[in-house]
Amino acid sequence: MLTELKNRGVADVCIAVCDGLKGLPEAITTVWELTVVQQCIIHLLRNTFRFASRKYWDQIAHDLRPVYTAASEAEAWARFEEFEEKWGTPYPAISRLWRTAWSEFIPFLDYDVEIRKVICSTNAIESLNARYRRAVRARGHFPNDQAAMKCLYLVTRSLDPTGQGRAR
């Protein structure tokens, strides 16, 4: 599919945010060699909690926050080492998870705070895709491609980032 996208004219992809699927970063960099692949921070945090007891989730989230809000890679690594001192012994799987994902986590730190808010997660695109699926499923089938495109256009127009029912 990625090669098909490239053949259709999607020639350059600057950054790709992935949700941790194995093999996806390699597939992306095979097709687009210069693409920076970044791990979705939200998915990384969710995966972190899978390895910890529910009663410690708030503490772990609090202790990880300085890692992903650090101003630089060196500062993030220092905060991660502090996190590891506290949580590495009871939950070594969390340390392994972050160490494994580190090379795909650090591109995030090269951007300003405003840009980080946009690229930290795949949730926005996942939400858009869910709305598209819901609209297509509700209509069943389309008489032609133009009708399908119109449906997707109308769904896109109806998105309301404020949540107050206004068209975009």
TrEMBL record:
Q: Which terms does the UniProt entry file under GO BP? A: DNA transposition
InterPro entries attached to this UniProt entry: Transposase_mutator (IPR001207)
**A Pfam family:** Transposase_mut
Task: Kindly indicate whether the keyword Cell membrane belongs to this entry.
Answer: no
Report TM segments: none
Give the UniProt keywords, A-Z.
DNA recombination, DNA-binding, Transposable element, Transposition
Q: Which GO terms describe its molecular function?
A: DNA binding; transposase activity
Query: Is Cell membrane among the key words of this record?
Result: no
Give the similarity note: Belongs to the transposase mutator family.
Q: What does this protein do?
A: Required for the transposition of the insertion element.
* Protein name (database record): Mutator family transposase
- Native organism: Microlunatus phosphovorus (strain ATCC 700054 / DSM 10555 / JCM 9379 / NBRC 101784 / NCIMB 13414 / VKM Ac-1990 / NM-1)
